[in-house]
Amino acid sequence: MSNSCSSALRLVLFRPGVIGNDTAFEAQAAIYKYLQQHYGYAFTIVKSEEDKYQDEALPIISIPKKAWKASLHQLGIPKLGSANQYLDPIFTQADGIITIDPTAYWQGLLAIAYAHQTKKPVWFDASRTVMGASQTLTWKWQRRFWMRKAFYQTTGIIVTVPKCIERFQEIGLYDQVIAPKFTIMGHPVDTKQFVPHPKQSEQDGIVRVLVISRMVPEKGLLYILEAMAPLLRSRPNLQLQFLGRGPMRSFLEAEVAERELRENVIFLNPVPHQEIPSLLGVADLFVNHAVSTGHWEEYFGAVNLEAMACGLPCVLTTSGGISYAIREKDVAVFVEERNIIQLREAITRLLDSEQERCLMGTRARSYVECYYALPVIAEKYHRMIQRGFGDNRLEDSGTNLRY
């Protein structure tokens, strides 16, 4: 479709209560900015007043929580028909709506209901590969009926990896009507921004192993520290860097002090997303040891691909969606979750061979350029939207259900 055709499309990104900087959404936002620049789309983000997300390149509307809470019944079911001074003008002016997973956030269910009522296309994105409490009998019997209606009324469902689709099947939300709505689309990487840099180790001789993560138990940070502790003691030129925030930071700091490794382990304060490439670029090795729990696993792992785009060799687990996001041989090293011996051995092999680090980093960047470079993902997103506006699925018999 030409720029002139796309320029008329005004799309609302309805994400109140679940949007912030330093999240995977910042990678997604690159798609919207690309489409605005190349095809003339007009995207507007709708967030709650308490959400702190900022982006000068995208118009943002902040609404009070009551604006969307008031349009939901006690069980989260949309109640339509009454005027909403905040939402009505926003949805009325939009040509289409992109929202969030209704099985995880009732705000998404509300946006889908609005779109269906006004006969506008609507998509939602989903990255969760496990649901935890949502698989309880209460959810299945009280809410699945409304979710099925929403899925039928949705134009398209954007998932990051096939395991997201498997999760929907497990909770009874997959059939011949829903199946064609799925599009698998991972998070993009701006490979013009995330590029290799000269290694700082070439200047000062200090080899840096970098970890960028939320500091929570499921990110496996203690396993990384445990695996690297002997290496840090035996290699005076080795440094482990943790970048992130979260409740586990104080615990890790105490563990580092207990092991007398404070000179070898550095805790970096979080930085804006645009500063991440420079930190990745000068490091020598990237480690992410996400571990699966009963209620969480790594849904995609965007930072892994950003590290790969910077030419970093990566040592990872296959938690959740990682094994699909990185699906070619020899572009990263995988170890078993919680296997400290394997993790230490993998790190040691790469530390011992600068040549292997360089070769793997080169292969890693080529992989990202092929599968997840911003133009690759954004063009696929563009084609999906165009199909949606020309699609007749909204007229399917399954969408005649009413709230």
Describe this protein with a few key phrases:
Rossmann fold; 2 domains; 7-stranded parallel β-sheet; 403 residues; 13 strands; single chain; elongated; 6-stranded parallel β-sheet; alpha/beta; disordered C terminus
What topology emerges from the helices and strands here?
Layout: H1 3-6, E1 10-14, H2 24-39, E2 42-48, E3 60-63, H3 65-69, H4 87-93, E4 96-100, H5 106-117, E5 122-126, H6 137-142, H7 144-153, E6 156-159, H8 162-170, E7 182-184, H9 201-204, E8 207-212, H10 221-234, E9 238-243, H11 249-258, E10 265-268, H12 276-282, E11 285-288, H13 302-309, E12 314-316, H14 322-325, E13 333-334, H15 340-352, H16 354-371, H17 374-389
Parallel strand pairs: 1-2, 1-4, 2-3, 4-5, 5-6, 6-7, 8-9, 8-11, 9-10, 11-12, 12-13
Helix pairs in contact: 2-17, 10-15, 13-16
Count of individual beta strands: 13
Distance between the termini: 35 Å
Q: Radius of gyration from the CA trace?
A: 22 Å
Number of domains: 2
- CATH superfamily membership of the largest domain: Glycogen Phosphorylase B
Order of helices and strands: HEHEEHHEHEHHEHEHEHEHEHEHEHEHHH
- Unreliable segments (pLDDT under 50, ≥5 consecutive)? 392-403
Q: Give the DSSP E fraction (strand runs of 2 or more residues).
A: 5-15%
Structural class: alpha/beta
CATH topology of the largest domain: Rossmann fold
Helical amount: 40-55%
Shape: elongated
- What is the CATH architecture assignment of the largest domain? 3-Layer(aba) Sandwich
CATH class of the largest domain: Alpha Beta
